[in-house]
Amino acid sequence: MIQPLLALQDAVTPWWVDLNLWLSGMGRGTDADGSVLAPGIGTPGGLDDWIDTGKLPTLIAILIYAFLMLRSQAKAKAGAEIPIRRIAGLDALDEAIGRSTEMGRPVLYVPGIDEIKEIQTIYSMMILRHVARKTAEYGTPLIVPVKDSVVMTFAEEACKQGCLDAGRPDAFIADNVRYLSNEQFAYCAGVAGIMNREKPAANIMLGMFFAESLILAETGYASGAIQVAGTAKQHQLPFFVAACDYTIIGEEYFAVTAYLTREPGLLGTIRAADIIKVIVIILFVLGVILATATGNGTETSPSLFDVYGRLFG
Amino acid sequence: MKREIPIALTVICGLLITWAFFSPSELSQAVNVELTAWASIFFAVAFLLGIGNLVRISLKQISARHPDWPYKALLMLMLFGYLSIGLLEIHGVIESEYGDKAYQDWIYERIFKPLQSTMFALLAFYIASAAFRAFRARSMEATLLLTAGALVMLGQVPLPIAPPEVGAFFARVQGFLMAYVNAAGQSAIIMGAALGTLATGLRIVLGLERSYLSE
User: Fold this and answer.
1) Is the pLDDT of residue A29 over 60?
2) Rounded distance, CA A188 to CA A143, Å?
3) Nearest residue of chain B to residue A241 (CA atoms)
4) What contacts 24+ positions apart, CB below 8 Å, involve A26-35?
5) CB contact under 8 A, B46 and A217
6) pLDDT of A273
7) Which chain B residue has the Cα nearest residue A147?
8) Closest CA to B111 of A183, A198, A275
9) Could you give the percent of chain A with pLDDT greater than 90?
10) Does the residue A80 lie in any domain?
11) What averages of pLDDT result for each successive group of 10 residues across chain B (215 residues)?
């Protein structure tokens, strides 16, 4: 049965070759005599000039994601219930702030050490606003040491806004948002100093962390504070898991604001991420099957006929 | 308007940078270079704000004789001392036979770097203490962690008193755990985090997420 299929393969051009030719053809210019130039990148006035065709799959994936996100948001706003599982680390945020209040000691919020252009740092600022609102409601001081001066301005705004959200603008203390140093370990030493001298009862570490993560987490543990940490940086997660009371892992980190506010629009984005995840898992499984079927991986662009031949031929 | 203008600027800049990522056109790349240059200027100005914050808080604590004031005084001394030495060297007021910026480099190489290395070296002790707590077999999960950790460690360290086959066996086990079990877990975390990053980025670029802005 495989022989006719293999013969057909020679006669049929795979779809991705057709697509590639079509895309290249869009970029074809014409010569002085009006003849069409050979397809290729960089021909003037064509599609290749405006879109990097190598990145087209990424663009399509992002557009699908954006579509799903907007659709899920619309559904959520229309009243569809989107359940979200319990995340212990996020429930622990309130517990940690409450404990600080009972003990009459401050809360320390460390937003990581990366710049504001890092998405985890931006997200950390959003969470900071919620933490600032809670601490303002309870009348507990909030200390935010920062490593980057741009992050400092964002942190000041987030704290100020959090206090306004709580109806307590007077709770904002400008001196508690502290720029320490632009150097990684100098900053780390500064935060460890705050942990040891000012004895915060709760350390919340959310953002992008590097080698300083364990130093901060262990210093916090030694000072007896309850610790909630979270990052999407997979290399630092084991350190936080080992040294902190609660850890917010990977994607949970980006669900914090949706989880805390239960705002339908934000919950919708989590649903969209879950749908994409299912699609990606299906693609993973298909990819594993195809990679297994196509042998040692040295071949490029195997056709479906090759795969069929290996599986059933 | 106080809220709408920043959101509009975020959306426009976000879309322009996204366009530059996908488009190799001269126009998009020129816009990208221009916006990145503006960002660099903003960062440079904000650096001064950071220094201002540091100086303001430190001077306040020194004048109030806060319990930490000696540390703050030392910080100010180093901050302005290092800055002064750099300025004096740049303008040729002080010179060294060892070359330009010799004094500044000496402070950086002989004081700052060793201090930085000291902080980094603390990790060795902290890893041991954290591992000691994490590897206590108090639950099923902790026991699994302990077993996996012990196997990986045995695969990494030399075993001089054991026959070579034993070392090779543990190396194979370690390779399997790292290449399949660990890599699979890490891939799952990376995938989830990447989707979260994309969702957050889209929310900001499309102007749907506004909680990072003041009301």
Assistant:
1) no
2) 15
3) B134
4) none
5) no
6) 87
7) B50
8) A183
9) 55
10) no
11) 84 92 92 93 90 95 94 95 94 85 92 95 93 85 90 90 89 93 91 89 83 73
Provide the shortest C-alpha distance from residue B169 to chain A (in Å). Answer: 26
Q: Is A144 helix (H, G, I), strand (E, B) or coil?
A: strand
Residue of B nearest to A59 (CA): B22
Looking at chain B from residue 23 to 42, which residues have their Cβ under 8 Å from any Cβ of chain A? 23-25, 39, 42
Given this model, what pLDDT does residue A311 score?
A: 62
For chain B, say whether A280 makes contact (Cβ under 8 Å): yes
CATH code assigned at A124: 3.40.50
Q: Does A255 fall in a domain?
A: yes
> CA A286 to CA A5: how far, in whole Å?
21
Q: Look at residue A181 and tell me if it is in a domain.
A: yes
Residues of chain B with C-beta less than 8 angstroms from the C-beta of A117: 39
Q: Which of B25, B191, B199 sits opposite A49 (nearest CB)?
A: B25
Of B47, B130, B195, the CB nearest to A251: B195
Give the strand pairing for A107-112 and A202-208.
parallel
* Pairwise CB contact (< 8 Å): B126 & A218: yes
- Segments forming the whole domain that contains residue A255: 88-261
Question: What was the pLDDT predicted at A290?
Answer: 82
Count how many domains chain A has: 1
d(CA B78, CA B74) in angstroms, rounded, equals 6
Q: What is the pLDDT of residues B2-31, one digit of tens each?
A: 778 888 998 899 999 999 999 998 899 999
For residue B121, the chain A residues in CB contact (below 8 A) are none
pLDDT in tens, A187-234: 999 999 999 999 999 999 999 999 999 999 999 999 999 999 999 999
- Of B45, B20, B47, B24, give the one whose Cα is nearest residue B33: B20
User: Which residues are CB-contacts of A122 (< 8 A; sequence separation ≥ 6)?
Assistant: A116, A154, B200, B204, B212
- Using DSSP's 3-state secondary structure scheme, residue B191 falls into helix
Report the gap between the CA of A178 and the closest CA in chain B (Å). Answer: 7
Would you say how long chain A is, in residues? 313
Amino acid in the structure at residue B153: M
